[in-house]
Structure formats: C-alpha cells, structure tokens
Amino acid sequence: MSVLTDSVLLPDDLAQVATVTVVRPGPLSTIQDWPGRTGYWHVGVPPSGPMDDLSFRLGNRAVGNPEGAPGLECTLAGPTLRFERATAICVTGAPAPVTVNGEPVPQWRAVTVPAGGTLEVGAVTGPGLRVYVLLAGGLDLPEYLGSTATFTLGKFGGSTGGILRAGETLPLGEPENTPTGAVPMEHQPALTRHWQLAVTEGPHGAPEFFTRADIDTLYATPYEVHFNSDRTGVRLIGPKPAWARPDGGEAGLHPSNIHDTPYSVGALDFTGDTPILLGPDGPSLGGFVCPVTVTAADRWKLGQLAPGDTVRFVPVRSAATAPLRELGRERRAGFPIVLSAGGDGDNGVLRRGHVDDETSVTYRRAGDDGVLVEYGEMTLDLALRARVHALHQHLLADRLRGITELTPGIRSLQIRVDPALLPVPRLLDLLAEAETAIPAAGDLVVPSRTVHLPLSWDDPATREAITRYMHGVRADAPWCPWNIEFIRRVNGLDTVQEVYDTVFDAEYLVLGLGDVYLGAPVATPTDPRHRLVTTKYNPARTWTPENAVGIGGAYMCIYGMEGPGGYQFVGRTTQVWNHRATGSDDPWMLRFFDRIRWYPVEADELLDLRADFTGDVRTEDGSFSLAEYRGFLDAEADSIAEFRGRQAEAFGAERESWRRAGEL
C-alpha cells in the first residue's frame, strides 16, 4: 500500500479543481473520514476518524455523499470557509450558530453556499462538544495508509497532518448524488449533559482484577468528565477501586498493571486508579486493565462528552446491541437513556479451556465486536508469546471474512470483527478449531534481526517530562524526582551504575509493536537477569517526549511520538517511525521478534542523529528458536533464580512502603 508523506496539493493541481478556502479554522478543526485508518492497529496506528461517527455519517448522507467521505470535525467551535463554487453543505453534531453570507441557516439540513459565498460556524453552545461540517463531493485529498483521516499526534492525514490552518485551500470532490435534504428528527442523536453509555463486560473485570463491589460501584456512580480529555481518551473523575489483588506482579506494583495487551476503542482503561475512555486516537497496546467496553453503536457519544458532563455506565447484553451500520431508529441514538435488561453476567469471560497439558486459554469479550485470546497464567513466558504468534499467523493465512484487525500482545491476541459478517459465537468455534491446527509453541523458529540503536542516558527531554509531571500532576510520587533511582531501589541494585550496565548489556526481544503508537516496541530482555521490574506512573503522565525509552513492569518501550505515558524513563533514542518512507516502504522500522541492542550517545549527539534520521540503522540477520532459548534458561537456572530472589525481596519492600504510604 502506498505511503504518502506530503498530502498538500501544489498550486498547479489546485487550478484544476474547485476549492474551499479556510478563512478562520476554529481552535481544533481536522479533516476526518469514516471508518478511518483501519488495518494498522498491530503497528500502533489508531483508526482516527470522527469521534462522533453518527453525526458525521448522517451529515454525509444529507449532502448526497457516501457515509465515509472526508469532512471536517471541529471541537469547541467551527470554521469560516469561503467556497469557489456553489456547494451543498450540512452542519451536524453539537449545536452552534451557522450562517451563510451572514444569514442564519439550520443544522442537520443540506443548504447551499453560493459560489464565492462564506459559511461560518460559531462556538458550540452545548450540550455536546464537537460539530461536523460535511460538503457535497467531500474533500479530494491523498490518502496516507488508506485514509485521509487526520492523526495530529502522528502528524499525518488530512491536508497537512495537523489541524486546519487559516489561509489554506482545500480541493473539493465532485458530487455523486443529489442532496437528500434534512436529517430526520428521529435519526438525530440526543445530546445531553448527563450521559448513559451502553457497555459490555470485559475484557478484565471481577473477580480476577476488580472486586464485585468495584463493578457495582462502576455501574451505580455518575462519573464526571475531566477537562484534560481529547481524542486519545476521555478522562473521568470517580471513585477509586478497592481492587481484587495486591499488585500486578511482574507487570508492575499497582493492581491495575497487566502484561501489555491490545486495547479496544471505547474501552474503560484504568491507568492506575484513573479511568479513561479510550478514543479513536488512543493507543493500540498497553499494560492496564479495562473492565468494560462501550458498544460500537454508542461510541459516538465519546465525541460529545464535554468537561463537567456526567457519565453513567449501563451494562447491556452483547447479543442485543444496536448495529453500527444502522443510522436510523435501530441505532437508538435518539434515546437519552440506554434501554437495558442487564449485562451478560459472565464477567467478560466467554470461554475457558486448555490448548495442551500445560497451557490454558481464556477467551475474553473485547466489546461487542471483538475477542481477546489470552494464553497461560499472568506471567512473562516467551512460550506464551510463541503461541500467540502461531495463532496470529494461522488466522492471517486463513483470511477469514469478517475479521477486521489482528493485534498481538505479550500473551494475548485481539481479534476485531464485523459481527454482521462474523458473529462472535461463530468466531469462538473457529478459534477452537484453530487450536488443533497450529503447531506447538516449542517448534517456533522465526527471523530475528539484531537492531542497534543509540540511547542518550537520562536525557534532558525525559528530565523535563518528570519536572512537568511533578508540577502538573503530582510531586510526591515514589518515582520522583528521578526515575532511574527508583528503578535502582525497586530492583535491589546497589548503585545507579548497575542500572546503566544492565540496560546496555541487555538484548531486548520485541514482543509487540505500537505499545505507545507508531511502531513503538514493547520488548523484554532475553536474559531474565537483565529484566529490571518497575511499576507504571499513577496517574499517568500527560506528556512524554517522542522516542523516550522507559521501563514498565518487566518491559522496555520506545515512545513512538509525543503523548501521555507511564513507563519509568531511562533515556531517549532516534525515531522508530520513518515519516519519510515512500512508495511500498513500510514506515515502521521494527518487526516482531527483532532484538534491540543499545549503544550510548551524548544528548547533543542524539539531537544530531534525530535531525539527520533517514530510517537507516545497523541490523544483523538472525533467528530466534524457542527450543534453544529454553536450553539457555535451563543452563542458567541457578543464577537466574538467585537474581529473581533478590529482585523479589526489593520489590516486596517497595510494595510494603507503598502500603504504609497509602499508595495501594
């Protein structure tokens, strides 16, 4: 698939097409299409697209477009646009004043802006937060990874990879059909200040991760929308869970921590004690539990949640959810409440079983359109990742109709489906059949390159991120003011130099991509004696520098771009996503089962390497054999056990100090 790195049309190109000029862009206006950028969840590329897909799709229908044609999503206020040719438009979503050449016009109705005319959309008056501007013919822009949807954090899509800018000129497509007129009142979504969200149970609920009382509280409590919310996720203010376990074990000190697992858009992600509803620009992989997931048909509401609004979660049966494809009465969007007779009552667990005498398998609900397959116990075991790989490859080869995404985690594989084509019960039967066909994990031999990357130890950018966290989130966290000292303490090492030596001696095996967006690896040392174990920030950071390197649980990650985060910093490296990739070249640099080796550079040298980055790094071909790896573990068993014993003692002491301080 072609990867376009520059979607701005040249002046000669614009002379051949009708255009619309952005006179005033509004504060946060972006170009989106629906369903967005699908098929790249496994490498950390979110779908993007409109947060309120319903308002967007209905508006496109009104002007005679296909439902997914590119249009504008505007947050807080809309734009002022000047049209070169007469164009039918429809403004939907949250209420806002709309004028054409200064004359008021209604929302939810196709109206014509005359040639040379101006459309002005003012500030949202509420309820709701986002307004949509759909134009007959859509916007005729090049695609990046199959979509024109803008992902501002990744700096791609749309016209420039970012929000609209004053003075830019956008090309209009040719209208395909006659506008249909107004969106019927009964099809328009009901906006409110007090929301109810239909949710399905799972993937990680009670009694394994949350107490039953936690889940009861979750359903009974009106949560408040925090002002620090955006397209990546909607933060909520609500009660702190009691939790069903003391910590996350190898995954981290906090009970919310798990081995990195694929996420669903609409999942309620507990990053520590903070609940966040993951949005269409959210991460594809992470190490936190999600007790419930908003149904696909109700996810439009995430786009209209405004700071100060309240949210109630209403459990529904997954088989009774409204169809996403439906835009009329069956979508039930016109009801301000969720009609429900209760949830599935299965704690999000669809099936359990065994694939062999040693390995269990659990099939968890990941929304009404997904299944999370988990192997084995909650522990770091490369044999489990091998099993995930075998299932992943089997499903890729089978090319089952109805599967839309396959995303591997550490010991899990998320399978997203179109339920209209592949119902979840049928998928479960097919997965059971697959277990009899895939090879034993012990037979795994895969290509495994050694990739050499520079690391600026304790980089100034990561120090700045810690300082921002202390000033803006909390200054009394156990890992502040220096993450590396915290890593030393929690692992029972005598000096910070030992942390340095361990990181640079380690060989990190890439188990997942997209842990924090854009091909960012989640990796673990092949030698257990190099596995420094930490916990994640609680609450998470609101800002992390691009390509910061951190450790969370027993894993290392490289942050693919700026954004939130929770891993403990050790330094910073070069880019892992090549924005300059063209043609058939993949922009993601790393592959599953690559081995990363660090070499030290000074901070100034890293800045030069980043400025001159072309995507070329030193690599050496090789392979990874699980059988050979098991032989290594057997040969070094005594030394590994001694290291783990010291580490567990220090980890336990840190946990006890947290308990006394009220952190747990």
Automatic annotation (TrEMBL):
- Record-linked InterPro entries: CT_A_B, CT_C_D, Cyclophilin-like_dom_sf, PxpC
Q: Which UniProt keywords apply?
A: ATP-binding, Hydrolase, Nucleotide-binding
**Which SUPFAM superfamilies does the protein's record reference?**
Cyclophilin-like, PH0987 N-terminal domain-like
Positions in coiled-coil regions: none
Give the NCBIfam families listed for this entry.
Answer: urea_amlyse_rel
Domain (Carboxyltransferase) spans 42-330, 361-590
Q: Which Gene3D superfamilies match?
A: 3.30.1360.40, Cyclophilin-like
Would I find Hydrolase among this entry's keywords? yes
The molecule here is called 5-oxoprolinase/urea amidolyase family protein
Q: Which organism is it from?
A: Nocardia jiangsuensis
Keyword hit for Ligase: no
